[in-house]
Design a protein that fits this description.
Elements: H1 10-18, E1 23-30, H2 35-43, E2 50-54, H3 59-66, H4 77-94, E3 104-113, E4 124-131, E5 140-148, H5 153-173, H6 178-184, E6 194-202, H7 211-220, E7 226-229, E8 235-236, H8 238-242, E9 246-251, H9 259-273, E10 283-290, H10 291-294, H11 302-314, E11 319-322, H12 327-334, E12 342-347, H13 348-354, H14 366-375, E13 379-384, E14 386-387, E15 394-395, H15 407-415, E16 419-421, H16 434-442, H17 454-463, H18 472-475, H19 482-490
Parallel strand pairs: 1-2, 1-3, 9-10, 9-12, 10-11, 12-13, 13-16
Antiparallel strand pairs: 3-4, 4-5, 5-6, 7-8, 7-11, 14-15
């Protein structure tokens, strides 16, 4: 029977590290005082742990040490990476191994902006550690981004200190158990104080770690509501991806990606680019999967999640995992990062659900409050037709059965062009459904191949995804790279 993990205080963690004669490193902190290293100084025995503590607050001093930031932003991942590399390299340069044969070097860095005086800018920060788990071993790195929710700068400084201690302690004592390391970051903290919305672990001790699963855990454990990862599987911070972008999102199960999904995004993207308020060179496309969708069959199946992620990443897409079951929450999240025009591609059957009042009973203003959030932003819904299975009727903006009580609201949005039809769709793919393709794959049938694009069936066969058990070696298609083929299909002109 597993024993529950004992949660130590920040002082106890700092003291345990200080008493370990092999741990030795540098603390570099900018923006919220020296709140992390303070815990180590106060715990006792710090002289055996702290090689140097530095806080280069002045911009010119900071630039002289770490170099300038091209974008002029100093609370960013690039700045923290430079701090980590510089300080760690300095440790190796100045401390000779002959004199310190058993020392495990580390460099901790953070760059933080606490809440401003007028409380118009909420605090956030980047935290990182570069560390060895044995002398002479190549270092690992852990990087995370946190958003502070407390409404007082002093409280945010204190939270910074505890989070930094938790990160350092977790790096040395939980590196073999990444999920436990992740959970330990909230020791003596809670979600009301801060939100961790990005984490990345790299290095020889993390070779077995799929960072996309760490992103999933952030949402699953309630540490954040949305995470993003790139086609190469790297976890990204939302502001870096979405800042001042024209965002175009498509939600789905993508289990697997079908010809319908590709037609929706290809035609929707072409249509979105024609909008007068959209810069074609400044569009960020997102394939979104909700946590609710991932857990539709009970507990979240991590392999099922990775299968979906593998397909989307293989075809060069940026993936958003969110806990925003309701679209107005998703749009609210986007609007934190951009004021530019946003687009959401959805099927006609989905918009019927959006106009169902039962989903908004928890709001004081009901559906009007939700729609106020949705359409007070510069949002456009690109409507993809849906073919009713029993009658064969085609649902579009004119024929979709909206409840009579809400029809005036729907017509108002149509009149103001906040909802627009994707008219140049491919009618030959309307009868394709992901569930049928998935069932066909699992039964070992062949007709699923006709439901997915060539580049997707190639990925599924090569990686044996979604339960595919075919002889992938003999069936492997050689030719165009899947990501290149997908990009060509999505960017095709209607």
């Amino acid at each position: 029977m597993d024993l529950e993990r004992v949660i130590l205080s920040a002082k106890q963690k700092a003291l345990r590290i200080n008493l370990n004669l092999d741990l030795y490193g540098t603390f570099a902190e900018i923006g919220a005082g020296q709140e992390v290293v303070r815990h180590f100084f106060r715990a006792g025995g710090a002289s055996g742990t702290i090689a140097k503590a530095i806080s280069a607050y002045d911009k010119d001093f900071s630039d002289a040490i770490y170099g300038k930031e091209a974008k002029g932003r100093y609370v960013c991942e690039a700045r923290m990476d430079k701090m980590l590399d510089y300080e760690y390299n300095l440790m190796e340069e100045r401390l000779h191994r002959e004199d310190h044969p058993t020392k495990q070097y580390f460099a901790f860095a953070d760059t933080v902006a606490t809440i401003n005086y007028h409380k118009t800018i909420q605090g956030h920060g980047w935290f990182g550690i570069k560390f060895q788990t044995a002398a002479h071993k190549a270092p690992n790195t852990i990087v995370l981004h946190a958003r502070f929710h407390e409404q007082d700068a002093l409280l945010q400084q204190m939270t910074t200190g505890v989070l930094g201690v938790n990160l350092i302690y977790g790096a040395f004592f939980f590196y073999k158990r990444p999920k436990e390391l992740l959970q330990s970051l909230y020791d003596n903290l809670d979600r009301d104080q801060l939100e961790i919305d990005m984490i990345q672990m790299n290095g020889p001790d993390f070779e077995h770690v799929d960072n996309r699963l760490l992103s999933l855990q952030l949402v699953k454990q309630g540490m954040t509501d949305a995470v993003i990862f790139s086609p190469d599987g790297r976890n990204l911070q939302a502001a870096d991806v979405l800042y001042k972008k024209n965002i175009l999102a498509i939600r789905g199960s993508f289990r697997p990606v079908t010809k319908v999904n590709i037609d929706m995004i290809a035609k929707g993207l072409a249509m979105f680019k024609q909008e007068s308020k959209v810069d074609p060179d400044n569009i960020q496309v997102l394939f979104e999967i909700t946590l609710n969708n991932l857990s539709a069959e009970g507990d979240i199946d991590e392999q099922d999640f990775l299968d979906r992620a593998d397909v989307l990443c293989s075809i060069g897409q940026t993936v958003l995992i969110s806990n925003y079951q309701k679209y107005y929450k998703l749009v609210e999240f986007f609007s934190r990062h951009t004021k530019k025009r946003m687009g959401v591609i959805m099927g006609a059957a989905t918009i019927v659900e959006i106009f169902n009042e039962k989903y908004y009973r928890d709001l004081n203003g009901g559906i009007l409050e939700a729609f106020g959030i949705l359409f007070s932003r510069d949002l456009k819904i690109l409507l993809y037709p849906w073919k009713e299975e029993t009658t064969g009727e085609l649902w579009n903006s004119e024929t979709t059965p909206i409840h009579p009580r809400l029809k005036p609201l729907y017509e108002y949005l149509l009149f103001n062009k906040r909802i627009a039809d994707i008219s140049d769709y491919d009618p030959n793919v309307l009868s394709i459904f992901s569930k049928e393709a998935l069932t066909s794959i699992r039964k070992g049938e062949d007709h699923w191949v006709d439901m997915v694009p060539d580049f997707v069936d190639q990925v599924i066969k090569e990686k044996c995804l979604f339960g595919f058990c075919g002889t992938s070696k003999s069936d492997k298609r050689k030719g165009e790279d899947p990501a290149a083929a997908a990009a060509r299909a999505i960017e095709q002109k209607p």
